[in-house]
Write a structure and sequence with these properties.
The protein is mainly alpha-helical. It has 7 helices and 7 strands; from the N terminus they run βαββββββαααααα. The chain has 2 domains: 101 residues, no CATH class; 47 residues. 10% of the residues are buried.
């Protein structure tokens, strides 16, 4: 197991009495990631080192999540992936994450959900897009059902069975609570 050492930013130091006032982006990210030394958890088959366990989104303090590729603690790894030149789909496949798994901390997810809820109310384009997505989902489900019905063909003789009430009148009374179920 190896360790990567990150040197502090060579940028200006914060002024006395104003912590973090003049930190550069790299210094802020280094401070957020919890220090300057990050242990490498493992190496992918292509030689890419990773800094978080495979198959897990690691949440750290202050609702931040750890990037598997560099170990930085971020509010949104999804937005950060562009810095590595990766897409979310490739990232999830490489690190054993589910496609729909969120790469953000819970507070960030809540903020995004609240923002989307407000946009759904006030923005007609968002409403139309959401409705179109729901329609496509329903059409996809109908198509899957149609394909399933074609694969599983029930003989006509089995389809003509008459339906019978599965509960007798005594059972119906028990279900309604008029008679005790156990005696």
């Amino acid at each position: 197991m190896s360790v990567e050492t990150i040197s502090p930013s060579a940028g200006p130091r914060p002024a006395a009495g104003r912590p973090g006032a003049a930190r550069t982006g790299a210094a802020r990210r280094s401070a957020r990631s919890g220090g300057v030394i990050r242990p490498v958890v493992g190496v992918l088959a292509d030689g890419t080192a990773f800094y978080a366990p495979l198959g897990e989104v690691v949440e750290v303090v202050d609702a931040l999540v750890t990037c598997h590729m560099c170990g930085w603690a971020l509010r949104s790894v999804t937005a950060h992936l562009r810095a590595h030149g990766w897409t979310k789909q490739v990232y999830c496949e490489a690190f054993g994450l589910e496609r729909g798994q969120s790469l953000e901390g819970p507070p960030t997810r809540k903020l995004r959900a609240a923002a989307l809820a407000a946009r759904l109310v006030f923005d007609p384009a968002i409403r139309e897009g959401s409705a179109a997505g729901r329609d496509r989902a329903v059409q996809d489900l109908l198509e899957v059902e149609r394909q399933h019905d074609q694969l599983v063909r029930i003989p006509q003789a089995e389809q003509d069975v008459t339906t019978v009430n599965p509960l007798t009148s005594t059972q119906q009374i028990e279900v309604r609570g008029r008679l005790p179920l156990y005696e």
